[in-house]
Specification:
By secondary structure, this protein is mainly α. It folds into three domains: about 5-55, Arc Repressor Mutant, subunit A, CATH 1.10.10; about 60-95, no CATH class; about 100-155. About 75% of the residues lie in helices and about 0% in strands. The chain contains nine helices and no strands. The chain has helices at about 5-20, 25-35, 40-50, 55-70, 75-85, 90-95, 100-120, 125-140, 145-155. The longest helix has 18 residues, at about 100-120.
Amino acid sequence: MELNQQQTDAWHRAAALCSRAEKCSGDMLRKLMEWGLAEDEAARVIDLLVEEKYIDDERYARSFVKDKFRFNKWGRVKIIYQLRAKQVHAGIIESALEEIDEDVYRERLTDLLREKNKSVKAATDYDRKAKLIRFAQGRGFELDSIYPVLDSLLKEC
């Protein structure tokens, strides 16, 4: 694949960026267009970066899911939303999310709600439950996961 001088320069800069940190094709496409490349020129550079294994959306999605779940304590909904915003293919997102163990997911949600429950100020149990549900949803957890965890947590109290 032949690249013009501007594309070659952009490829070198992009390869250096991708060598330092994992990037997805959507992020790099935006970055290349910020650098002044037209969309079709940027797409050629992206194709070369993928071919040379600097960019791998599957590798990126697995890493993103693992990091956001472990360190940011995000649920699946928030992770999916962020990956879609980065233009990662839905099939790739689904396969990356399968790596989250269901028991660990439930345990993380339980720990989050237990910790938040200590600081929630509510006049009634109904208000407390509503605040905890909103908190968990804000973190990206599904209602189907929140209700059973919250019910068992509030029975403990």
